[in-house]
Amino acid sequence: MLKLGEYNNLEIVRERDQGIYLCDEEGDEVLLPNKYVPEQFQIRDVLRVFVYLDSSERIVSTTLEPYATIKSFAYLKCTNVSEIGAFLDWGLEKDLFVPFKEQASKMRVGSWYLVYVYLDEETNRLVASSKTNAFLDNSLVLLSAYDEVDLIASHPSPHGWNMIINQKYIGLIYSDEIFQKINVGDQLKGYVKKVRPDGKVDLTLQRHGFRSIEPNAEQVLKELESSGGFIDLNDKSDPEDIKEVFQLSKKSFKRAIGTLYKARKITIEKDGIRLVGE
Question: 210-275 is classed in which CATH architecture?
């Protein structure tokens, strides 16, 4: 069966005036229009294509890569609003439809929205929803402390930033754990601090304890190398200045430069830190 909203590996079965027809293992066929047909191909070649519905609601394939696939979140721009809903640019010829009932707030042309892409079973159409929390489930969180996770910034709260975790769960990074600017839709690497009994997940952008020393030291080293071997910050510097340059807390920064100092990679001077040999 052809999989709507996903990449399909399909075999070329025949060529026609409008393009080439591709077929899956079950014999279902889909057109790849001429504009996407490779310059050189042979019958029985296998192509990786994205399958969706065109403006006439016909199943069609493309070699274009959309910004999101089915059952995933993406940050997309609104291109049009009509009497039935809004439309988002997701990298394909036909924009992605968002019904009014699936808009957390009324969408406006030119604005960007974090949405979830899914198949509407009633219409068999690919649609999106900005009511993202409805597609996250923390009833059974299969995560543990120290796990590295993929994050998408969802929305700020009075306590910090809510994050979508591994496209499945919702979690929170508290304000005192944030040392960089975050915007809705940002994709980040993070770490689990704690999974609470009620399913809530506490997150951090820094590795915990001794686990954070080595990567943070590497980060400081790279920043030094790109700055000519000297930076006018040290363990006595203002925490906000450290945060601005390294996106680290002062505590993490002191650990990092201590590691580098012990490894004889840097010297710590009264007005900053310097690479050894510089």
Answer: Orthogonal Bundle (1.10)
Q: What phi and psi, each to the nearest 5 degrees, are found at residue 106?
A: -60, 125
CA distances 268 to 189, 231, 237, Å, are 30, 10, 12
Structure tokens, 184: 């809705």
| Whole-structure pTM value | 0.77
Give the pLDDT confidence of 48-105 residue by residue, as tens digits: 999 999 888 899 999 999 999 999 999 999 999 999 999 999 999 999 999 999 999 9
Model confidence pLDDT, tens digit, residues 255-275: 888 888 888 888 999 899 998
Q: Domain 72-133 belongs to what topology?
A: OB fold (Dihydrolipoamide Acetyltransferase, E2P) (2.40.50)
**How far apart, in whole angstroms, are the C-alpha atoms of residue 170 and residue 162?**
7
Every domain range in the chain assigned CATH 2.40.50.140: 7-62, 72-133, 148-205
β partners of residue 150: 189
Contact 40, 31 (CB under 8 A): no
- Residue found under tokens 């609003």: 81
Q: What CATH class has 7-62?
A: mainly beta
